[in-house]
Amino acid sequence: MSYKRFSLAAVMALLLVAVAIPTSASAFKLVKADGSAITKHTEIHLIGHTEVLDSTSSGFKCEINTTLTTKDGTEATTVIVNTQQITNSCVGIGLLKECSITKDTTAMTGKFAFDENAWTFGFSMNDTLAGCIYTFSNWLFEPMKVVVGKGPITVGIMEGKGTEDDDAGKFNATISGELTIGQYTEAGVNKGSAKGVFKIV
To answer: What pLDDT digit, counting tens, does each position of 103-150 carry?
Structure first.
């Protein structure tokens, strides 16, 4: 067998092995700060103070309320639900300064993921505008990262890049801000503040 034939065969064999190996989910998960596992359906209320800006330095500062829900702390059972943009809290910036938001839809997009000090997920925010020359402003961040640190979770720092569409066209965009940890429930029972109760391991 020639060297070229051997090399090709070796490469093909490695490719077959790589394809055969299943991709695994993240080894990281959410647990109680004392190290104990989450064994009941858990919901953590989150309050986000966000700023979204497009490449013209125009956008909004808004409060966004949402809930992280999980059955066992793994990526597979963790999602963001009940996301609400508090429209009367929103302040326009730059070219959107005179705009008010009259209607919105916000949601998690794509899959939720953990790493050692953060969680990530896609986030969309579609706004209907009034009081200015723009009629809509749609934002998409895939993914958005929330950095929570390696110890008990007390606050999350949001960061992400994406796009913004409005009447003038499509622009690059960024999201930033702080996520405040609020109340949490286990199996529907309110357990009080979630601040410092959970961590990623």
So the answer is: 999 999 989 999 999 999 999 999 999 999 999 999 999 999 999 999
Alpha-carbon span 196 to 201, nearest angstrom: 14
Per-residue model confidence as pLDDT tens digits over 43-60: 999 999 999 999 999 999
* pLDDT at site 25: 53
Rounded-to-integer distance, Cα 90 and Cα 148, Å: 25
Q: What value, to the nearest 5°, has the Cα angle with vertex 60 and ends 94 and 114?
A: 135
- The b/e string for 155-186 (b: 16+ C-beta within 10 A; e otherwise) is ebebebebebbbeeeebebbbebebebbebbe
CA distances from residue 156 to 75, 166, 177, 179, 188 in whole angstroms, order as listed: 18, 29, 9, 5, 24
Q: How far apart are CA 192 and CA 201, in angstroms?
A: 22
Q: Is 197 helix (H, G, I), strand (E, B) or coil?
A: coil
pLDDT value, residue 87 = 86
When mean pLDDT is compared across 23-27, 57-61, 89-93, 144-148, the lowest value belongs to 23-27
For every residue of 73-100, DSSP letters joined together read SSGGG-EEEEEEEEEEEEEEEGGGTT-E
5 CB-contact burial (10 Å; exposed 0-12 / middle 13-18 / buried 19+): exposed
